[in-house]
Write a structure and sequence with these properties.
By secondary structure, the protein is of the alpha+beta class. The protein has one domain. The strands form two sheets. The protein has a ten-stranded antiparallel beta sheet. A hairpin with a 5-residue loop joins strand 11 and strand 12. The longest helix is centred in the C-terminal third of the chain and has 25 residues.
Length: 223
Amino acid sequence: MPRMRLAFAIALALVCLESHARADYVSQSVPLVSDLGGPDTGMVLAEANSGATAVNGLQPGQVRLTFTGNPVPALLKLGPNFGFNQVVFNTDLAITPGQVTLPAGWTLSGPNLWPSAPNAKIWLAQNSPSPGNQISNPVVVVISGLGSQATLNHFLIGIPQPPSPPFVFLGDVSYWNSDGVAVVRDNMIGTIQSTPEPSTLVLGAVGLVAGIVVRQRRRLRSR
């Protein structure tokens, strides 16, 4: 009996956790790959909060995209002060520039920037290439005022780029040269990896717990 109660408690906790994550706050990491740095060049942490309370500093109705570059040797050899000069994201929502918060000194352009995807809502955030503006790493982009539409399915959308596969994020890697000017050296491309949905993982866990319960009952009946 104690084992059965524990099993049911675990199953209930998993279901409650899954329900909270899917209804309110959810996050997903998207790896960044570059020609020079390879597959471990960086990451974009995409977070969304469609709930009624703040989670991890993310307010209700907000989506946060955090672009982070890893200081891998291949990129550090290019020069000091490694960081992003610009980042690109896509959405199917009709957002306005006033809803987007960027690092100090950065500007926003869009949507409809991609010739190969004239109907896509693609946004470009970049810093002004002047000595007064620092290259940023990480780069945090916050989109506010989304309400119940603050979900990742509105932002983890492939950007067509024939003949290459679609990607969801893009970041240009730069460094300061001796004249204090940002020099773009490489780009980072983020693609979605195929991973189980949270609901799939929870259902699998519940199925495992149910199997344990059934076996326990059979043992009790056989005594």
